[in-house]
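A further point concerns the way the authors explain their paired sequence and structure data. Showing the layout once, in full, would remove most of the difficulty. For illustration, here is how one protein appears when written out as sequence plus structure tokens:
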Amino acid sequence: MSAAPASEPQTVTARSPLAGCTILIVCVLVLVFLVGFSTWALFRQADEIAKFTSDKPAPIAIAPTEDREADLNHLSERLEGFRQSLDGTAEVKLELSKDDLNTAIAAFPALTELKGAFNVREIREDGKLVLDTSLKMNGKPRRTREGEEGYVTSDPRYLNGTLIARPELADQEIVLRIDSIEVPGASVPEQFRQQMSPYRITERYKTDTTLGPVMKKLTGLTVTGGKVVLRRQPGETAPGTITNDQVDSGAKRLFRWLGLAASAFLALVGLLLFIGMRAKRRKEQEAAGQ
């Protein structure tokens, strides 16, 4: 009677779930790391911003509008005349003084969102504006009260201080190139100023049915003689777009560090995978030799 053939030893083959499970675990670890690092960076940034911002807005001067019907009518006529002139072919200019700018913010419904947030204190001879501001910003993320479970919001913070900025025309909108931010009793990091500049103060008005078309037709903006001068000059090309380097300089630094950290983490994961593959190959060789 012949003996039954000996069973062959089991080997770890390419169909082994070990490799697939390892890759899945690595992907989950990378995802958890990136989410965790991003959350940490967000909270760290919020903590740094809290050092020079306040939880309540500061009172900002608002130009009086009572008993100024003649001034308001004159300003409205100038603005409307300039808007209509933009449809022609001749060169047109509009000069706005500090009082004009503050009155427009205080009186015109289209600029309501700037009311109480900005006040032009001075138009300097060097072409810069001195702006008193109480700018609302997002604070540290948090969950809302019961009944809104899962919805994440943030308590507002306010940048109460002074901006020294140069207004410019860029990408069919008016932006502020911020030279410095002064907050009483606090120091504002240079990185925050760089991230905030250029501040797109009129971005919200690009889709406005009245202000949007006006900004699209402008070809230049200068500050001279204590006035902000808007113009449309035939043959003049309006300044180009705001580059990502200008708008996202601070964000780019954050993602650069994120990328470096992720690369280091992935290198570690790759090393672990290499060790795991070598261990798998060694087991296959041992099993084949039995």
In short: The chain has two domains: 18-45+254-284, 54-247. The longest helix spans residues 249-289. Residues 7-15 have pLDDT under 50 and may be disordered. The chain is about 40% helix and 25% strand.
